Amino acid sequence: MFGSLGFTELILILMIVLIIFGAGKLPQLGEGLGKAIKGFKKSVHEAEAIEAEAQAAAQQTAAPQVATAAPAQSAPLSQPAGATVQSAPRA
Fold it and tell me: What residues of the chain score a pLDDT lower than 70?
């Protein structure tokens, strides 16, 4: 990005910035630029964390879940005398 800019070009840009904003405003500009970069980095890291959470949630829902099969019909514990219990056919 800055590969084509030489030392003299950077000095010229610095001189123009100094003339436009003045020496008193340069610390404020530097501070504002530093805060902007810090905020940008923070938001990038938060976005990566949110994306990682979303991917983890998607992987959990896509994973096959083991379902426990409930019996079709359970026999009563105590049966009257002479009663027969027929179980339903299982698929």
Answer: 1-3, 63-91
Judge contact between 29 and 21, C-beta under 8 A: yes
Q: Look at the pTM and tell me if it is higher than 0.85.
A: no
Alpha carbon 2 to chain centroid, angstroms: 32
CA dist., res. 84 & res. 66, Å (int): 34
Q: If DSSP codes are grouped into helix, strand and coil, which group holds residue 26? A: helix
C-alpha to C-alpha distance for 12 and 19, rounded to whole angstroms: 11
Residue closest to 13 by CA, chosen among 38, 1, 21, 36: 21
Q: By three-state DSSP, how is residue 48 classified?
A: helix
